[in-house]
Write a structure and sequence with these properties.
Radius of gyration: 16 Å
Oligomer: single chain
Shape: globular
Structural class: alpha+beta
CATH class: Mainly Beta
Strand order of the largest sheet: 1-8-5-10-4-3-2
Helix content: 10-25%
Number of domains: 1
CATH topology: Jelly Rolls
Length: 197
């Protein structure tokens, strides 16, 4: 059973090897067509590395058979765009973030939209509300959003949460300047195989 969010410490047996697998392959820019919700591209994306090791650890931690929709590493630094509040409702029901930086772990913050009281993107969001939420996510201003929780990105910690929840990396500006002192995470958007129809 996966609750709204769960934290698993000491997630990997050898996090250093997994981290090195991502750094060895490297990172580039990805253009997912995110539209008006944030930047049209994502810098610091890595699609190579030890994804199978991480997926296996995710299954062991949650006790469910994981069917990944998309997995990637993300390295953020002073060169990366400022984070914006967002939702992964369009990706899969669940998201996992594994923190792989001892020097600069950062955190993940969860947010409530002040005007509507929403903490996640609704399943059936009408056009007007979707446009409002999309605009407010892109701006990510304190007058529109209230932080309701923050999970510290401790090294070798995994955070699993319901993908529609509004969240973002925190702080929104990364302070890393090199691959070694920048924030490195693994992200998986996934289905619980037993829940799939």
């Amino acid at each position: 059973m996966i609750r709204s969010f769960q934290v698993f410490d000491t997630f990997l047996e050898n996090p250093g090897a997994v981290r090195e697998s991502a750094l060895r392959v490297g990172f580039s820019t990805w253009n997912p067509g995110k539209g008006t919700a944030s930047e049209a591209h994502l810098d610091g994306m890595g699609f190579g590395g030890a994804h199978a090791t991480l997926t296996r650890a995710l299954m062991q931690a949650t006790g469910v058979v994981v069917a990944p929709q998309l997995t990637h590493f993300r390295l953020t630094s002073t060169r990366t765009d400022r984070a914006t509040i967002h939702s992964y409702a369009h990706m899969a029901p669940y998201t996992c973030i594994v923190y792989l930086s001892a020097q600069n772990p950062g955190s993940t913050a969860f947010w409530r939209h002040k005007e509507t009281g929403l903490t996640s993107l609704p399943d059936n969001c009408d056009t007007g509300l979707f446009a409002k939420l999309t605009d407010d996510m892109a701006k990510s201003r304190s007058e529109d959003w209230e932080m309701i929780d923050v999970i510290s990105g401790e090294y070798n910690r995994a955070l699993v949460f319901n993908a529609p929840l509004f969240h973002c990396r925190y702080p929104m500006e990364d302070r890393g300047t090199t691959d070694q002192d920048s924030r490195l995470v693994w992200v998986s958007h996934f289905y619980n195989f037993q829940e799939m129809k």
